[in-house]
Design brief:
Helix content is 63%, strand content 1%. By secondary structure, it is mainly α.
């Protein structure tokens, strides 16, 4: 009989993460009235419309992607010639975003970054060019904008159709892209990674640019210091975007609490990851907890909650989406762990085996260690002990690790857990009262996020999916 620590975890949801303080829900008579298919409208007429500079990106989207007045929008309502739909006040600009969410978020980012770069140039030209410009270029230069898409489709699936909800969702998406810049730039410094998105990491690029101005060690130290400042600047800009959202007081409270919690969770998860590297932890429970805090909440659950919040979703819907996001988010991180070891660097944009060389306490390694110990497989344990945390691990050594991960069954066990988590997450989505067509788009995006093959970018939802038939259950998740 195998020891307890060698047993596979059941298909239940990941371990719970303590919730930070939630905003107290006001009595019903004090809450803003919420229409059935849109956001709250708590302000007077003079405050009801988003400021011109916030609404402008939506209008540019509408001009770039005109909508056929006779076509149905994603809510299923028929659009009229002036762009307002018959059910819920949707606009042609909002419908146009549905056709290409990443591009719409990109246009908002362009506006935000142009404003920030102009402010930076007013302070100092060198700072603007060498630091602020690096932040802008990194943010715009790559990534799949999955988090931004989750915000948008959660908003749409929860009935958001007005310009104000849509503008808030796009700007939150832009803020998440800046927050991702902060996380990746800081991660690369902490992990000593030299590549990101197939290019030199930011600290490496800065180091190389100043290589002739100082001895190598000083140039390297300057590159790391500049990257830390670049991450801090990206975080400050992200917070600015969220602080400037035009929201009614209740929705603003919920969004700002969610944003605050997410930032703290990210730091906690990164700390646990680093602490596990230091101590050589091989605990499956600790690995899952770090994955949940560092990635699942930030990458999936919180973006879903933010999108639902700006749409004015009720508690039942918000809870269902959070549960779905927790499951899919952990599956996303477990897939990333597999991707790091078995993925093709030409597709992932980073060297294979980075987690092994850094000694990261991933769930994949924890499962392999437990299974090898249960089988008294000394060879496998020796390979793992020798390779984990070895920065000079050779390609042949990495291949030995891969062989152990396959032979112990760890790779197959993690693949199976990813499938169970993805299925469970999609069941939570199926149980939520969502707008059918937009809910289907959200479901497809979550399925792709959880279950893509190593190195494969998540596919965009089909342009015109049909709602799943009632009672059809959860389809098999493709890998």
């Amino acid at each position: 009989m195998r020891p307890t620590q060698a047993k596979d975890h059941p298909a239940a949801a990941p371990p719970p993460v303590p919730r930070l303080v939630a905003p107290p829900e006001p009595p019903r008579h004090e809450r803003p009235d919420r229409p059935a298919t849109g956001r709250a409208h708590a302000r007077g007429a003079s405050e009801s419309a988003a400021p011109l500079h916030l609404a402008a990106p939506l209008r540019r989207v509408a001009a770039a992607h005109p909508v056929d007045p006779g076509a149905a929008d994603v809510t299923g309502a028929q659009a009229d010639p002036v762009g307002r739909t018959a059910a819920g006040g949707g606009t042609a600009a909002v419908d146009a975003v549905d056709t290409d969410v990443p591009a719409a978020v990109g246009r908002v980012l362009e506006q935000v970054l142009a404003d920030r770069l102009a402010r930076a140039r007013a302070l100092d030209g060198r700072f603007a060019q060498e630091l602020a410009g690096q932040v802008a270029g990194f943010t715009q230069g790559g990534g799949k904008r999955t988090r931004s898409q989750l915000v948008w489709w959660a908003m749409r699936a929860c009935g958001g159709s007005g310009e104000e909800s849509a503008t808030a969702a796009l700007r939150i998406g832009a803020a998440l892209e800046l927050l991702q810049t902060c996380a990746l730039v800081h991660d690369d410094v902490m992990d000593g990674s030299t590549l990101r998105r197939g290019r030199p990491a930011l600290h490496t690029e800065v180091r190389d640019r100043h290589a002739g101005a100082a001895e190598p060690s000083r140039a390297a130290r300057f590159g790391e210091a500049a990257a830390i400042l670049a991450g801090d600047l990206a975080l400050a800009w992200a917070d600015d975007v969220v602080a400037e959202l035009a929201l009614d007081p209740w929705t603003a409270t919920v969004v700002h609490r969610l944003w605050s919690d997410m930032r703290t969770e990210m730091v906690a998860g990164q700390f646990l990851d680093l602490q596990g590297q230091l101590t050589g932890s091989r605990s499956q429970a600790r690995a899952l907890r770090a994955a949940c805090l560092k990635s699942a909440l930030y990458s999936v659950e919180r973006p879903l909650a933010l999108g639902a919040a700006v749409a004015g979703a009720e508690a039942r819907t918000l809870q269902a989406l959070c549960s779905a996001g927790r499951c899919v988010g952990v599956a996303f991180q477990l897939r990333d762990d597999l991707d790091d070891v078995f993925g093709d660097p030409a597709r992932t944009g980073k060297p294979a085996g980075g987690d092994i060389r850094e000694g990261k306490p991933t769930y994949l390694v924890a499962v392999a260690t437990a299974r090898a110990a249960a089988a008294s497989d000394r060879h496998a344990l020796n390979v793992l002990d020798r390779a984990l945390g070895d920065p000079g691990l050779s390609p042949a050594g990495l291949e030995e690790v891969r062989e152990v991960l396959v032979r112990t069954g760890a790779r197959a066990a993690v693949e199976a857990r990813i499938g169970r988590l993805a299925t469970q997450g999609l069941r939570h989505v199926d149980g939520a009262p969502l707008v059918p067509a937009a809910g289907n788009r959200l479901r497809e995006l979550l399925a792709a996020t959880a279950s893509r093959a190593p190195g494969e970018p998540p596919a965009r939802p089909h342009p015109d999916p049909s709602p799943s038939p009632a009672g059809s259950g959860t389809p098999e998740v493709r890998r």
